[in-house]
Amino acid sequence: MAEPEFSAKGVRIERWTRSLTRAGQVLIKDGRLALLTSNGREIDSAPVDAVSAARPRLPWLAKEDRTVARLNGTRYRLTMGEEPDHSRGSDLTQRFLQAIRQTTHGAHG
Predict the structure, then answer these.
(1) At a CB cut-off of 8 Å and minimum separation 6, what does 69 contact?
(2) d(CA 29, CA 61)
(3) Which helix (H) or strand (E) holds 79?
């Protein structure tokens, strides 16, 4: 596959209390999810079928542009679309979760 199933730039990636990047990239390509810094350095990656992702459950964290992903046993908080237009962030979050579900179901189906 040449084209990524999902790609988002300008993503804030946090390992709970620690911000890893404010302008990172989330990429799903060839069955792998990769979290990258703003300069393209890999933070973490894993096969999509080994990744869990969902909306945060705590009310103060459950904003429409946020999701939580667990890769290799580590939880990351992803805030999509850190630009002023937050509607874009919620759209990216929905597309990300959908890409995870489709890729996971496609791998087992």
Answers:
(1) 33, 35, 51, 52, 53, 75, 76, 78, 100
(2) 28
(3) strand 74-79
Q: How far is CA 34 from CA 48, 51, 75, 84, in A?
A: 9, 11, 13, 25
Which residues neighbour 71 within 8 Å (Cβ) at sequence distance 6 or greater?
Answer: 33, 35, 44, 45, 46, 50, 51
Render each residue's pLDDT in the chain as its tens digit; 109 residues.
457 789 999 999 999 889 999 999 999 999 999 999 999 999 999 999 999 999 887 666 667 788 999 999 999 999 987 655 545 778 888 999 999 988 766 554 4
**With the CA atoms of 34, 38, 40 and 46 taken in that order, what torsion angle do they form, in degrees rounded to the nearest 10?**
-10
